[in-house]
Amino acid sequence: MSQEPRSGSWWLTLPGVLTGLAAVITAVTGLAVALHQISAPSGPEKASSEKPVAVTTQNNSKPPPASSDTTTSQTPSSDEAAQESVALPAGMEVKLAGGDIVYKILSASLEPYNAEKRLLKFTIRFTAGSTAALGIGVSTSSFRLLVDDVPREPISFSSEGQNAFLVEAGSAKEDDVLFEVPTTENEVVLQISNDDPRTAGRGHETTKIPFDLTATET
Fold first, then answer.
1. pLDDT score at 54
2. Taking a C-beta distance cutoff of 8 angstroms, is the pair 97, 128 a contact?
3. Are residues 136 and 102 in contact, defined by beta-carbon separation less than 8 angstroms?
4. How many degrees, rounded to 5, is the angle at CA 31 between CA 30 and CA 32?
């Protein structure tokens, strides 16, 4: 009679222990799953959190729309490039009338004018020797520009608007002589002549100076 309670108590206790152990395992497993879900967000949550970052990066890296003005200022057109002034070799000196007349080209430059023509400007110093008692006369006919062997007269000769002027003996004068040159021409010849009738006894003298309009001053 005394063994039945002991045997019954043992069978009643074992199922209780197993049930309690199963409850503990279930609770631990559930806690682990919950912690994993909290630490690792699901796929939709990742996409929603990363989307603003992607949009911000795109907005920051998006370049501003390029306007026609910006393109023009960065890349000059061929017409604008042709309108730039070019300094040509200078320093040539011409002596006429036995040295009484000296023409020295101080500078030469090619300047923009229009779509078909350019301006070729010579700054010249006119010097009259001390033996030229009456000085020397200089006029538009003293200069011609040969373009493809065709002589062209100056379009501007004196800053004072004169067609001729006198340089006193033993003195000098500086002025600009301008010619029109077609944009298609790159080789011209400056012709300088002594047409002062007071030196006619020494003969008519002419000097020709070629210019390469593609060359630049060094």
1. 36
2. no
3. no
4. 90
For 105-163, how does the pLDDT look when each residue is reduced to its tens digit (9 = 90+)? Answer: 999 999 999 999 999 999 999 998 877 677 788 888 889 999 999 999 999 887 777 78
Give the integer Cα–Cα distance in Å for 6 and 169.
154
Q: Give the domain ranges of the chain.
A: 3-61, 84-212
Of 144, 142, 108, the residue nearest 126 (C-alpha): 142
How would DSSP label each residue in 119-158?
EEEEEEEEEE-TT-TT-EEEEGGGEEEEETTEEE--SB--
Biggest CA–CA distance in the chain, Å, is: 172
Write out the two tokens for 68: 């026609």
Q: Which residues touch 204 (CB under 8 Å, ≥6 apart)?
A: 193, 194, 195
84-212: CATH architecture: Sandwich (2.60)
Reference 167, options 134, 121, 202; nearest CA is 134
Report the alpha-carbon distance of residue 196 to residue 113 in Å, rounded.
32
Q: Quote the tokens at residue 23.
A: 């409850």
Average pLDDT taken over every residue of the chain: 73
Give the separation between CA 106 and CA 5, rounded to whole angstroms. 137
Q: Report the alpha-carbon angle 204-209-155, nearest 5.
A: 80
pTM score above 0.85: no
